[in-house]
Specification:
Helix content is about 40%, strand content about 25%. It is an alpha/beta fold. Among the domains are: about 60 residues, Roll (Ubiquitin-like (UB roll)); about 80 residues, Translation Initiation Factor IF3 (2-Layer Sandwich). A four-stranded mixed beta sheet has the order 2-1-4-3. The protein has a four-stranded mixed beta sheet with strand order 5-6-8-7, covered by helices on one side. The protein is elongated and about 85 Å long. The N and C termini lie far apart (about 100 Å).
């Protein structure tokens, strides 16, 4: 059983939290122990600015935390003695959550786009399809190119192969052949990969958007500026 009694401060559950055997199979909290939840005789203390204070009794560390109006947070529980730091734990948790949210927001996922062509595609349609492939590669996405054969076209796989090679050559500045052309039933498939990473493409897109916004604001400010009237000589 967990030691300790339920007192006025109701810290029974908190005191038992670090011990795995208190849970009987339940999940253990990932939160670090703070302040009076820390149950060791001494700690290796780190100051508010990251300075090494040294090994001090727990009571002294708690006294310093109260003096600085900060929390004593256990940052390395497995060390001997455990490492604790003086910090504003509420502010630390908030900033950590904001950083994680921003990281998820900026996280780049490579998407596989698909473009379908016919072996005997006319020049106008080819240029249109190629334009889409160029746009996808500029965005940092992979492109799966599928050549669809019908009827007697299935006996001429070289038509699809030459078309795929032509397309890869036309966009070689933006992408490369990640998966060589291969027959898949009545289709022939090739995968193009972008030279730029998704994160780079996203950063460039944001910079271009910011530049366009600045140009628009500059043009608007110029248009709203009062016209100069010629001075009388």
């Amino acid at each position: 059983m967990c030691s300790g009694a339920v007192g006025p401060n109701r810290r029974y559950a908190a005191d038992c939290q670090p011990a795995a055997w208190c849970y009987r199979g339940g999940s253990i909290s990932a939160e670090p122990r703070i302040n009076d939840r820390i149950r060791v005789p001494e700690v290796r203390l780190v100051g508010p600015s990251g300075e090494q204070v040294g090994i001090v009794p727990l009571a002294k560390a708690l006294e310093l935390a109260q003096e600085y109006d900060l929390d004593l947070v256990e940052v390395a529980a497995n060390a001997r003695p455990p490492v604790c730091k003086l910090m504003d734990y509420g502010k630390f948790k908030y900033e950590s959550a904001m950083k994680a949210r921003e990281a998820r927001k900026n996280q780049a996922h490579t998407v596989i786009k698909e473009m379908k062509l016919r072996p005997k595609i006319d020049p106008h349609d080819y240029d249109t399809k190629k334009g889409h492939v160029v746009r996808f590669l500029k965005q940092g996405d992979k492109v799966k190119i599928t050549i669809m054969f019908r009827g007697r076209e299935q006996s001429r796989p070289e038509l699809g192969f030459r078309l795929l090679q032509r397309l890869a050559s036309d966009v070689e500045d933006l992408g490369f052949i990640e998966s060589n052309p291969k027959q898949d039933g009545r289709n022939m498939i090739m995968v193009l990969g972008p030279h730029k990473k998704k994160t780079e493409a996203m950063a460039e897109a944001r910079e271009a958007q910011a530049a366009r916004k600045a140009d628009r604001e500059g043009a608007k400010a110029q248009a709203d500026a009062p016209a100069e009237t010629p001075s009388e000589g």
